[in-house]
Amino acid sequence: MPDKTGIGLKVEHYRDVLEGRPDLGFFEVHPENYMLGGGPGLTTLEAVRSNYPLSLHGVGASLGSYDPVDPDHLTRLKALVDRFEPFVVSEHLSWSRYQDHFLADLLPLPLTTAALAAMTANVNHMQEALGRTILVENPSTYLEFSHADMTEPEFLRALVKATGCGLLLDVNNIHVCAMNHGFDPIGYLDAIPGDAVGEIHLAGHSIDRYGERDIRIDTHGAPINDDVWALYEQAIIRIGPKPTLIERDDNLPPFADLLAEAKQAEHVMASLAQGANNASVAG
């Protein structure tokens, strides 16, 4: 399903999905919302899964922590993976746990060899526990550490090589970080291992003013803007069609608006694929 699109499944849209059976390739959920013994949420997810593939996009493993991944978290995640057989399981290049203290945010990692070693150990542990390869998503960040041993694409490339994991390429996050930190987003795309990308995320962001600077914030609370769409086209040109998710977690619009964005992503992939085919024939 490389050229299929999906939407993040929200309670507010359950009826649209179950009754409308929209023409989509998949739905994505945060597994932490369904690590339960039962209840209506799991029942609804079963109904959705009977009609669509699922992607499980985790936010609670804290793979970047120096501490090992919480074993209870992995046990409950494994039960959910076994039950719903998602086509993708993903997590973040971030940390949110220190010993027994949990933070309600996805915090950035220093791009150091020590952080890479910790991330590698936890990705390997998670993949072994689940019995499958996971994808790791590039983060959105607002500050840079004073020291780094490598760039973020170099970090991700080394992580893929060390663990065999794949990548979840968040195009909005690349744009947000490029604008916040002043690097070239096209250069970022050129530096990542494109063959490792198993899914793409598209989302909206906000622009906040701090003194004389504009800071882009990854809110998932607005439509995808033109700059992100243009960067998505550049990503597809480089790595080819990939399952693409429309993320919206705040200021939820009518489901039809998200479906329109999903169809726009499908159109981008189809148009670029057709262009590539025409060029190949002409050559």
Automatic annotation (TrEMBL):
Any matching Pfam family: MbnB_TglH_ChrH
InterPro entries to which the protein is assigned, alphabetical: MbnB/TglH/ChrH, Xyl_isomerase-like_sf
Family named by the database record: Belongs to the UPF0276 family.
NCBIfam families, per the entry: PRK05409.1
HAMAP family registered for this protein in UniProt: UPF0276 (MF_00697)
Entry-linked PANTHER family: UPF0276 PROTEIN HI_1600
Protein's recorded name: UPF0276 protein GCM10007972_15460
Organism of derivation: Iodidimonas muriae
